[in-house]
Amino acid sequence: xxxxxxxxxxxxxxxxxxxxxxxxxxxxxxxxxxxxxxxxxxxxxxxxxxxxxxxxxxxxxxxxxxxxxxxxxxxxxxxxxxxxxxxxxxxxxxxxxxxxxxxxxxxxxxxxxxxxxxxxxxxxxxxxxxxxxxxxxxxxxxxxxxxxxxxxxxxxxxxxxxxxxxxxxxxxxxxxxxxxxxxxxxxxxxxxxxxxxxxxxxxxxxxxxxxxxxxxxxxxxxxxxxxxxxxxxxxxxxxxxxxxxxxxxxxxxxxxxxx
Length: 259
Known about the structure:
Shape: globular
Number of strands: 8
Strand order of the largest sheet: 4-3-2-1-5-8-7-6
Order of helices and strands: HHEEEEHEHHEHEEHHHH
């Protein structure tokens, strides 16, 4: 990681950032809380990052916080070289491995408003399957032909791996890290969360189906018709309805995420 500036000044974080950044912080904190709520976390590990609107700076959690401890105010702001732009108060710094993966994707994809890296159970299981993600369900067909794969290179601490991560992701919004986990990309935090949720759902269905015996595989030409429908605004709501419902859930259960 790069250099460390002074801590957050006495004024609240909200008073030190733009309205657009604060909104992104609230959405990102909500995303962390939702991952905790739905059991898609790995203790203190993994990261969800968001680009600060209008900049090359990214927001990231402090390494040591559980996901249900993340708030809008305790997210660090760093640049793509790993230097702190605004360090949140407290003992928890930025995980170097998280910086490697997330700086790679944010730096290599201008459309990467949010990047999610998980070790979620089902998706990691599928990442270890030679067959990869199969079109066994409608959830999986949303990703038909649109999943990248990256071979395991050990813990993500090698800066040189960044170029291979970007190359293997390509234009996809989803990548399975072989024997490791997943990377999900979205233009917005809500879009990235819902993509990650859909991927985990597809992987859970695959793990269950493969444990049950003979499989029914749908025709490939039919599978290929599903991703365009998933992107068609006539049939989708741009993640707005789902995200609003999820925020209502958090407001009832866990409202301090927005602090």
